[in-house]
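Exercise 7.
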Amino acid sequence: MIKQIRIKLSVIDSILTYAFSSHPNESILLLRGKVSKEIINVENVMIPPLSIHGESYSSFPMHMLPLDSSIIGTAHSHPSGLVKPSLEDLLHYYGKIMAIAGYPYRTERDIKIFDREGRELPFTVEG
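Solution. The predicted structure, written as tokens, is:
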């Protein structure tokens, strides 16, 4: 069970900037970091290889991902502003956590983190 999620401020900025620059299309990023017991530290992001973006979808071919144990989840945007995972999001869940950034992509309050079941998880932002 995940008890604590720590995200670097630079990761928050990257998610928001990438989402804003992709708008009105969805964006998608891979979250990289470390998992130790019940604590997740999100340290940076990576653009998935061959990712595609549309008005109501974003995806990438999972078979193209490198063998990299530091990939701990995904982050994508919802241009509608609704920051809640869709059924499609949950069916294509990858990793330990999923971050969703909602329009207008201004602050960390526009980002929510979810577990595999779609439950919102609290997180802290660290310098």
